[in-house]
Amino acid sequence: MAAGEGGRRLVPLAALIRREAKAERVDSPSVRYGSAAQSKKGEDFFLVRTDCLRVPGNLSTAYSVFAVFDGHNGNAAAIFTRENLLNHVLSAIPQGLGREEWLQALPRALVAGFVKTDKEFQSRGETSGTTVTFVIVDGWTITVASVGDSRCILDARDGVISLLTVDHRLEENVEERERVTKSGGEVGRLSIVGGAEIGPLRCWPGGLCLSRSIGDMDVGEFIVPVPYVKQVKISNAGGRLIIASDGIWDALPSEMAAMSCRGLPAELAPRQVVKEALRTRGLKDDTTCIVVDIVPPEHPVGPPSPPKKINKCNCFFRNRSRDSSSKLAKKLSAVGIVEELFEEGSAMLAERLGNDSSTSVHTTSGLFMCAICQVDLAPSEGISVHAGSFFSTSSKPWQGPFLCAACRNKKDAMEGKRPSGVKVL
Ligand SMILES: [Zn+2]
């Protein structure tokens, strides 16, 4: 389910700037961050951008982006994604939106940006793949999109720790195992001589342990780049995000990672988390950590203080299922700590791109636009994302959003409707 469809109207730029300037509240939080990494294979990368503006030239529309990319089978996919993903996401957001509409448009733009980045990387014919955990912080609103098993956790100011991502690991995600199997993939362990099975569950062909990633041309296309997306609004008490690759999470449960750096400023906290992970497990894998503090304006330098008592029921350790994460968020919402604005993890593009009868799919020239790669389409070229879909019986096949032929082929391949391994670029 994509948020924010329908009812979008274009707003003149001058009116928008006036509105944004008015909305520049004195209670806007500031963002402080730090990062640390220990490399074993040279395949982890990260991105920090604190200078992004929703409206060019208007400093009151600033937002920040933080991301971790954990590459495998080489570093090309991770580097390509770091260079291109943000632009692809932004180009999928309609122009002229106010802040609230912009935030509502983000989940869908994230899906388009991830799929476009994957498609472009595959067209280069290079192997390798990458996880992505991509975090946009705008005021008190945090939007996280992820594929793979790098994670983002939220340590709210009162000490409640929650997971803002799910792990797309075949071993631990039964929904994803079922999806991959239904789409034509085989899930099993590596067999050694004598028939014994070893290691985690993997997908064949390819032998990848993840069910979602960007890149991975040499595995079936049911290993999809469609991200799990979650958007939350924290209270004006602030909070801390810890974004890290599995080098951290394989060594430390979420709570330990959060506790290990409490009381330290964001600039120093990631080093402490990495140190704690290495102390526990040694340097077995690339290990990357970004810590972001969302700080209320009255207390510009105060890191989260140690909580008096942690409520065990609300703590989130290594539970990887989507349902549990959803239940937890609802629980958090109920006590007013974190307001959940959006959550969706479906791998089906028809569900993620939604129905669109608004004008946002049209370019100014009156042409249609591909909802994934944003190329212009003549009316006869666009194929509705819902055409022939088993998943959205209520939608109309002539209704947008529309896809170009190449993106439609990619969608079919991801859903197992085209033989795996036949890549359409
Ligand atoms: Zn397209």
Automatic annotation (TrEMBL):
The lineage's top-level taxon is: Eukaryota
Recorded hits in InterPro entries, A to Z, give:
PP2C, PPM-type-like_dom_sf, PPM-type_phosphatase-like_dom
Its required cofactor(s), as named, are: Mn(2+); Mg(2+)
Keywords of the record, alphabetical order, are: Hydrolase, Magnesium, Manganese, Metal-binding, Protein phosphatase
Q: Which CDD domains does the UniProt entry name for this protein? A: PP2Cc
Its EC number is: 3.1.3.16
Reactions catalysed according to its record:
O-phospho-L-threonyl-[protein] + H2O = L-threonyl-[protein] + phosphate; O-phospho-L-seryl-[protein] + H2O = L-seryl-[protein] + phosphate
Q: Which Gene3D superfamilies match?
A: PPM-type phosphatase domain (3.60.40.10)
Domain PPM-type phosphatase: residue ranges? 25-294
PANTHER family linked to this entry: PROTEIN PHOSPHATASE (PTHR47992)
**Which family does the record claim for this protein?**
Belongs to the PP2C family.
User: What protein does this entry describe?
Assistant: protein-serine/threonine phosphatase
Q: Which organism is it from?
A: Iris pallida
